[in-house]
Amino acid sequence: MANVDRPSGLIPVGHLDGSKWNGAVQMFLFDQSNAVYIGDPVKSGGTAGAAGVFVNGINCEGMPNADRAAAGNTLVGVVIAFTPLYNDQTVIHKAADSTKRIGLVVTGPDTVYEVQEDSVGNDIAVTQVGNNFDMITWAAGSTVSGVSIVELDSSDSSGTSTAQFRLLRLAPTVGNELGTNAKWLVYINEHEFKTTTGV
Q1: CA 154 – CA 160 distance, rounded (Å)
Q2: CB-CB contact of 35 with 95 (8 Å)
Q3: Which of 4, 121, 127, 134 gives 20 to 30 Å between its CA and that of 48?
Protein backbone atom coordinates (compact mmCIF):
# COMPACT_ATOMS: atom_id res chain seq x y z
CA MET A 1 0.00 0.00 0.00
CA ALA A 2 1.43 3.38 -0.99
CA ASN A 3 2.23 6.01 1.62
CA VAL A 4 -0.17 8.94 1.85
CA ASP A 5 1.33 12.21 0.58
CA ARG A 6 0.46 14.44 3.54
CA PRO A 7 3.31 16.75 4.60
CA SER A 8 2.73 18.24 8.06
CA GLY A 9 6.04 19.87 8.90
CA LEU A 10 7.87 18.45 11.90
CA ILE A 11 5.95 16.77 14.72
CA PRO A 12 7.70 16.21 18.08
CA VAL A 13 7.34 12.60 19.19
CA GLY A 14 10.11 11.83 21.64
CA HIS A 15 13.69 12.27 22.81
CA LEU A 16 16.94 10.61 21.85
CA ASP A 17 16.96 8.49 25.01
CA GLY A 18 13.72 6.82 23.88
CA SER A 19 11.40 8.72 26.23
CA LYS A 20 8.22 10.34 24.94
CA TRP A 21 8.18 14.05 24.14
CA ASN A 22 7.45 15.82 27.42
CA GLY A 23 5.54 18.81 25.98
CA ALA A 24 8.12 21.41 27.01
CA VAL A 25 8.13 24.62 24.95
CA GLN A 26 9.55 28.14 25.09
CA MET A 27 7.73 31.35 24.12
CA PHE A 28 9.20 33.37 21.25
CA LEU A 29 8.05 36.64 19.73
CA PHE A 30 7.29 36.36 16.01
CA ASP A 31 7.39 39.97 14.82
CA GLN A 32 8.63 39.63 11.23
CA SER A 33 6.44 39.76 8.12
CA ASN A 34 7.00 36.12 7.11
CA ALA A 35 4.17 33.63 7.37
CA VAL A 36 4.96 30.86 9.88
CA TYR A 37 2.96 27.63 10.17
CA ILE A 38 2.53 24.92 12.78
CA GLY A 39 5.40 22.47 12.34
CA ASP A 40 7.77 24.96 10.72
CA PRO A 41 11.43 24.84 11.77
CA VAL A 42 12.40 28.28 13.06
CA LYS A 43 15.56 30.28 13.68
CA SER A 44 16.39 32.99 16.20
CA GLY A 45 15.91 36.54 14.99
CA GLY A 46 18.92 37.88 16.88
CA THR A 47 17.00 40.35 19.04
CA ALA A 48 14.13 40.48 21.54
CA GLY A 49 10.95 42.35 22.35
CA ALA A 50 11.46 45.98 23.28
CA ALA A 51 10.13 47.66 26.42
CA GLY A 52 6.40 48.26 26.17
CA VAL A 53 5.73 45.49 23.63
CA PHE A 54 2.64 43.47 24.55
CA VAL A 55 0.89 40.79 22.49
CA ASN A 56 -2.65 40.01 23.63
CA GLY A 57 -1.82 41.21 27.11
CA ILE A 58 1.45 39.27 27.42
CA ASN A 59 4.53 41.36 28.18
CA CYS A 60 7.15 40.59 25.50
CA GLU A 61 9.92 42.79 26.88
CA GLY A 62 13.15 40.80 26.54
CA MET A 63 11.37 37.81 24.95
CA PRO A 64 13.63 36.45 22.16
CA ASN A 65 12.23 36.70 18.67
CA ALA A 66 12.19 34.00 16.02
CA ASP A 67 11.31 33.64 12.37
CA ARG A 68 10.61 30.94 9.81
CA ALA A 69 13.80 29.13 8.77
CA ALA A 70 14.98 28.07 5.33
CA ALA A 71 17.22 25.25 4.12
CA GLY A 72 20.75 25.81 5.39
CA ASN A 73 19.77 27.87 8.46
CA THR A 74 20.87 26.86 11.94
CA LEU A 75 17.67 26.17 13.90
CA VAL A 76 16.43 26.99 17.38
CA GLY A 77 13.52 24.56 17.19
CA VAL A 78 10.07 23.90 15.77
CA VAL A 79 6.95 25.99 16.40
CA ILE A 80 3.94 23.88 17.41
CA ALA A 81 1.36 26.56 18.31
CA PHE A 82 0.67 30.27 18.62
CA THR A 83 -1.18 32.00 21.44
CA PRO A 84 -4.67 33.07 20.29
CA LEU A 85 -5.46 36.43 18.75
CA TYR A 86 -8.16 38.18 20.76
CA ASN A 87 -9.79 39.65 17.64
CA ASP A 88 -9.71 36.52 15.44
CA GLN A 89 -9.14 33.11 17.00
CA THR A 90 -9.58 31.34 13.65
CA VAL A 91 -6.05 32.39 12.56
CA ILE A 92 -3.85 29.75 14.18
CA HIS A 93 -0.67 30.45 12.18
CA LYS A 94 1.46 33.60 11.89
CA ALA A 95 0.14 35.42 8.83
CA ALA A 96 2.41 37.16 6.34
CA ASP A 97 1.83 40.60 7.77
CA SER A 98 3.01 42.85 10.59
CA THR A 99 0.78 41.24 13.23
CA LYS A 100 2.92 40.15 16.18
CA ARG A 101 2.35 36.62 17.49
CA ILE A 102 3.76 34.62 20.37
CA GLY A 103 4.85 31.17 19.22
CA LEU A 104 5.39 28.08 21.37
CA VAL A 105 8.63 26.53 20.21
CA VAL A 106 10.10 23.12 21.01
CA THR A 107 13.75 23.98 21.64
CA GLY A 108 15.20 20.83 23.21
CA PRO A 109 18.17 19.80 21.04
CA ASP A 110 17.52 16.11 21.81
CA THR A 111 13.92 16.22 20.60
CA VAL A 112 12.97 13.64 17.97
CA TYR A 113 10.52 14.67 15.22
CA GLU A 114 8.49 12.86 12.59
CA VAL A 115 8.70 14.37 9.09
CA GLN A 116 7.76 13.28 5.56
CA GLU A 117 10.36 12.97 2.82
CA ASP A 118 9.66 14.83 -0.43
CA SER A 119 10.79 11.94 -2.70
CA VAL A 120 11.85 14.32 -5.46
CA GLY A 121 14.90 12.99 -7.33
CA ASN A 122 14.87 9.79 -5.28
CA ASP A 123 13.40 8.10 -2.23
CA ILE A 124 15.46 7.83 0.94
CA ALA A 125 17.19 4.44 1.19
CA VAL A 126 17.88 2.44 4.34
CA THR A 127 21.60 2.88 3.68
CA GLN A 128 21.14 6.60 4.37
CA VAL A 129 20.00 6.15 7.98
CA GLY A 130 22.49 8.14 10.06
CA ASN A 131 23.09 10.69 7.31
CA ASN A 132 22.17 14.36 7.48
CA PHE A 133 19.50 16.11 5.39
CA ASP A 134 18.22 19.65 4.88
CA MET A 135 14.58 20.68 4.82
CA ILE A 136 12.65 21.78 1.76
CA THR A 137 9.55 23.98 1.47
CA TRP A 138 7.66 24.04 -1.81
CA ALA A 139 5.11 26.69 -0.87
CA ALA A 140 3.39 28.24 2.11
CA GLY A 141 1.48 26.07 4.52
CA SER A 142 -2.29 25.95 4.82
CA THR A 143 -4.08 29.12 5.93
CA VAL A 144 -7.09 26.92 6.79
CA SER A 145 -5.45 24.34 9.04
CA GLY A 146 -2.39 26.48 9.83
CA VAL A 147 -0.16 23.44 9.23
CA SER A 148 3.31 23.52 7.61
CA ILE A 149 4.21 21.60 4.45
CA VAL A 150 7.95 21.45 5.20
CA GLU A 151 9.50 18.12 4.19
CA LEU A 152 12.86 16.38 4.33
CA ASP A 153 14.84 16.91 1.11
CA SER A 154 15.39 13.29 0.10
CA SER A 155 17.96 14.18 -2.57
CA ASP A 156 20.11 16.19 -0.14
CA SER A 157 21.78 13.45 1.86
CA SER A 158 25.14 14.23 3.44
CA GLY A 159 27.55 12.00 5.31
CA THR A 160 29.37 15.09 6.64
CA SER A 161 28.61 17.09 9.77
CA THR A 162 26.55 19.66 7.87
CA ALA A 163 22.80 19.74 7.03
CA GLN A 164 19.96 20.48 9.40
CA PHE A 165 18.61 17.06 10.40
CA ARG A 166 20.05 13.65 11.32
CA LEU A 167 18.05 10.71 9.98
CA LEU A 168 17.36 8.23 12.78
CA ARG A 169 14.96 5.62 11.41
CA LEU A 170 11.73 5.02 9.51
CA ALA A 171 8.81 6.21 11.65
CA PRO A 172 7.27 3.04 13.19
CA THR A 173 3.67 4.03 12.48
CA VAL A 174 0.97 1.80 11.02
CA GLY A 175 0.91 1.92 7.22
CA ASN A 176 4.24 3.73 6.88
CA GLU A 177 6.73 1.95 4.63
CA LEU A 178 9.96 2.62 2.75
CA GLY A 179 9.45 4.46 -0.51
CA THR A 180 7.71 7.54 -1.83
CA ASN A 181 6.48 9.97 0.86
CA ALA A 182 7.75 7.85 3.75
CA LYS A 183 7.72 9.38 7.23
CA TRP A 184 11.04 9.43 9.10
CA LEU A 185 12.29 10.21 12.59
CA VAL A 186 14.97 12.90 12.81
CA TYR A 187 16.55 15.27 15.27
CA ILE A 188 18.00 18.72 14.64
CA ASN A 189 21.66 18.39 13.74
CA GLU A 190 22.36 22.10 13.23
CA HIS A 191 20.84 23.44 16.45
CA GLU A 192 21.67 26.82 17.97
CA PHE A 193 22.04 25.25 21.42
CA LYS A 194 24.76 22.90 20.14
CA THR A 195 27.10 25.67 19.01
CA THR A 196 29.22 28.17 20.90
CA THR A 197 28.51 30.82 18.25
CA GLY A 198 25.89 33.37 19.26
CA VAL A 199 23.06 34.60 17.07
Answers
A1: 16
A2: yes
A3: 134
- Can you give the residue range of the structural domain that contains 129? 11-15+22-193
Question: What one-character DSSP code corresponds to residue 146?
Answer: -
Any domain includes 42: yes
d(CA 167, CA 164): 10
Mean pLDDT by 10 residues, the chain (199 residues): 92 96 96 95 95 94 96 95 89 92 97 96 94 85 92 83 92 95 97 78
Q: How far apart are CA 56 and CA 47, in angstroms?
A: 20
Q: At 106, phi and psi to the nearest 5?
A: -80, 115
In a domain, 59, yes or no: yes
Q: Indicate the pairing of strand 132-133 with strand 165-170.
A: antiparallel
* Domains contained in the chain, number: 1
